[in-house]
Amino acid sequence: MFAFKRRYSLYDWNTEDWATLLALAVKWGFDQVKELAVCELVKKDMPLLTRIGLYQRFNIDSARLVPLYAELCSRPDTLDEEEAEALGLKTAVLVFRARERLRAVLSNEGKSPLPLGLEKDDVHRVIISLLTGSDAFVVTSKTGENLEPLMGSHLGY
Does the first or last residue of the chain, that is N or C, have fewer Cβ atoms within 10 Å of its Cβ? Predict the structure, then answer.
């Protein structure tokens, strides 16, 4: 019997190999190779922010970024500091703005005003708690009503 060596196939590459090919395709202007690499990377399992960063770095068609941004905007938690840094200022602001618009009352033309009864001191307490890393804060109105549940759903905290 003949022993055939398995022929190496591009389609057996791992994520790092496809990312390298993508980088070279972009560098050398090989658009078809770039598209092949992107199509193969779509099939690979990778963290959401890693995929976004890769697509941004190599100027992949924004149509491929929209569903990734939508996934970030739709999740219950906001970006943390590390995620915002990884995305960069422009993208982090885009995500925060989209989250705020999505969570706003439609009748307010995409704006998300503070809940009725929320006082300036309450806003200060929330900011202080975020600056100090403490999530243990209770926001109350002048009447003493606990606004914490409203804050969580309305502002995305």
Answer: N
